[in-house]
Amino acid sequence: MEEIDRRIVTLLAKDGRMSFTDLARETGLSVSAVHQRVRRLEKRGVVRGYTAVIDHDAIGLPLTAFVSIKPIDPAAPDDAPDRLAHLTAIEACHSVAGDESYILKVRVASPVALEDLLQQIRAAANVSTRTTVVLSTPYEHRAPEIADHSPA
């Protein structure tokens, strides 16, 4: 990836609403050149979308937890993500190495809601669970450092 594209991606990762005018000012390119580069980055799948960062406390979902799941029957098909897709309290599903098969990031309103969600997860995917409740989040949604991987 070219240095200028890395700069654009870094700026967008920090502020996905940054205007083409501001991107042009920060990169030293014209607005039309920035626009073309951003569209090319989108077409290549480097920039996959733009999202709003939500204050989950403000919308009534203050409890975050990580739920590790492991199939009760190891011979069963590995279809837990499909079986759990309907549960909107699951914010993310990560396939992992180790004892568990997946780690789910969930957001709910209360401990009672978490208990209910855990029962739904177990029933829907036929898995055992291990849960870690988040006490606080010092940082999240950090922009990545984009390294130059071009040959020297």
UniProtKB/TrEMBL annotation:
Gene3D superfamilies assigned: 3.30.70.920, Winged helix-like DNA-binding domain superfamily/Winged helix DNA-binding domain
GO terms of molecular function: sequence-specific DNA binding
Entry keyword set: DNA-binding, Transcription, Transcription regulation
One of the record's GO cellular component terms: cytosol
Keyword Transcription: yes
Domain HTH asnC-type residue range list: 1-62
UniProt-recorded name of the protein: Lrp/AsnC family transcriptional regulator
Record lineage: Bacteria, Bacillati, Actinomycetota, Actinomycetes, Streptosporangiales
